Amino acid sequence: MFKALLLEKTDDAVTSRIAEIEDSALPEGDVLIDVSHSTLNYKDGLVLNGLGGLVRDYPHIPGVDLAGHVAESSHPDYEAGDVIVSTGWHVGERHWGGYAEKARLRGDWLVKLPEGLSARQAMAIGTAGFTSMLAVMALEEHGATPEGGPILVTGGAGGVGSVAIAVLAKLGYEVTASTGRASSHDYLKDLGAREIIERSLLSDGPNRPLDKAIWAGCIDAVGSTTLATAISQMKHGGAIAAVGLAGGNDLNTTVIPFLLRGVKLLGIDSVLCPKPRREAAWQRLASDLPLDKLEAMISTASLEELPGLGSDILKGQVKGRVVVELN
Ligand SMILES: NC(=O)c1ccc[n+]([C@@H]2O[C@H](COP(=O)([O-])OP(=O)(O)OC[C@H]3O[C@@H](n4cnc5c(N)ncnc54)[C@H](OP(=O)(O)O)[C@@H]3O)[C@@H](O)[C@H]2O)c1
Fold this sequence. Notes:
single chain, 327 residues, alpha/beta, Quinone Oxidoreductase, Chain A, domain 1, Rossmann fold, 2 domains, 6-stranded parallel sheet, 10 helices, binds NADP nicotinamide-adenine-dinucleotide phosphate
């Protein structure tokens, strides 16, 4: 038996409870994992609240991310005792996820943790931080350098934003963070943001198709009018990594910045990211994310606290990264 947060659907409502579940109820997979840590992402907030149509079958164990030790494996790459991390592949949506003391997954989805990162630190990073690194790698591949000019990070105090700021600052970039929370200014400065701007300067929408060229690059967790404003303010040749939709999934813009400034809009998908790129991103996180900054982002939660936190994250009220402690 193992303990899990179980979601059930009754009529149109999704409810949650802590349950004891038989090992034999776990879904098929070639690696059995003793889960030690999980975390909370924006998508977990959607799943916990039964939103977004992400979960098809109930009862369901949520938890998009997990880390822990391999207990049993019939996959050639893993043996008992290996410390692994799992993000993406629709775990926690279509497959039972990390809000449980045990999980059974496909070995092809897993990544062995690089030297220097613990399971707890991996979950402090989680999908949010992993995606931030994919965004940083995408900007680099499209010409970003620390000498090129300031990088804008939107949704600065959120999970994606926090890790992006810490990594970019360590790499020597001049980072401007946008935030809607005045209480986050010291936190963002401590992570390495050089400048902080009020969220509404971006979310009110662009003044004109081509505004003053400010940003050499952008990691955008917000979408909608915020992303449209960023597009209008990019320097010539600048690249934007479009990561999220915390402010909305619409995008009303013009092609003018793409035609006259060669602006590049790069989509970032962490869920189906191929394994070699996953491994490269985790290696980069081990080397380029300052662990003292990561520590400053962490708050700890139990399984019991997750339903409440799931609602908070959808309202933009969770700062940094939540680590869920299991075994
Ligand atoms: N593409 C992918 O593979 C991928 C992976 C992970 C996450 N995501 C997406 O990335 C986004 C951020 O994820 P996260 O885990 O970092 O979530 P999060 O911790 O909630 O961070 C989002 C941040 O956006 C800001 N924000 C919230 N509501 C806003 C609004 N209405 N207008 C403008 N800004 C708003 C807030 O930052 P401030 O208070 O500082 O303004 C909030 O902390 C989500 O949309 C998520 O679905 C995508």
